[in-house]
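Researcher: Final request for today, and then I'll write up notes for the group meeting. The sequence and the SMILES for flavin-adenine dinucleotide follow.
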Amino acid sequence: MIKTYKTTLSSKEQLNFDIYLFTFTLKDPSILEFVAGQYLILFVPDPSGTHLRRLYSIASSPLKKDNFELLVQIVPQGKGSEYLQSLKVGDEAMFQGPAGMFTMRKNEKDIIFLATGTGIAPIKSILESSPNMKSHLFWGLKTYKDIYYLEEFKKIAEENKNFDFHICLSRETDFSGIPEEVRKFFTLGRITQSFEEKYLNSENDFYLCGGKEVVESLKEYLLGKGTVKENIFFEKFT
Ligand SMILES: Cc1cc2nc3c(=O)[nH]c(=O)nc-3n(C[C@H](O)[C@H](O)[C@H](O)COP(=O)(O)OP(=O)(O)OC[C@H]3O[C@@H](n4cnc5c(N)ncnc54)[C@H](O)[C@@H]3O)c2cc1C
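Model: Predicted protein-flavin-adenine dinucleotide complex:
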């Protein structure tokens, strides 16, 4: 059921040059129940006295109920971005939710997650709340300096032997800048190049998340390869 939540910002961590992790603690009501993959609507105060709304996927596990995390790309001059950036630890923020259908269907198939940028947020929540799920993640970022969440995904993969992940760096041309001990987690080029040979199989379920254009082009790509639309689930960050 959609509710309104009063929260306080309990931490704000910069993960790379434009990506921040915000943790909000619930005040009223004191817990948030949601299904992994859902989002919340942030009320962004407007000078006119009303508020704008911006949607953010919940990046943390639903097993944690008294706080939640948002993974946010700060967009220059963005209304939601500027408001979030202006918040200090202890400040109040209002949300509505939870909402959204980017949640796991029950099935016996392998799951393929394809994400770009902060589209990883709902997928991280799903993975952290599904300990034995058989799945493969392909996550597109531009360069090695964009990396965050490496330790988090290593931990998930250590705890769940049915999970593997591949960070696909579209703008790196070689592995020289990547420490040898973590190179096995990286591929060069676009997501599609990385997963096509091993994992393209119309029996799999595909979950896509990221910017609108990327999700639409990944969906077209999968349909073009013979994946049926019933096996493709997606969330577009517009
Ligand atoms: C279901 C859903 C879930 C979402 N979850 C997340 C999430 O977990 N994390 C997250 O970071 N975002 C997420 N988004 C996107 C988010 O809702 C905002 O659209 C985004 O943060 C930009 O809002 P803003 O108010 O800062 O910018 P706006 O004020 O809306 O836009 C300001 C300017 O920036 C441009 N702009 C907007 N987005 C981008 C961009 N990504 N890159 C470059 N220019 C841009 C706009 O075209 C405009 O010119 C989600 C969107 C949807 C629909």
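Model: The domain at 3-99 is CATH 2.40.30.10 (Elongation Factor Tu (Ef-tu); domain 3). The mean pLDDT is 94.
Researcher: Thanks, that's everything.
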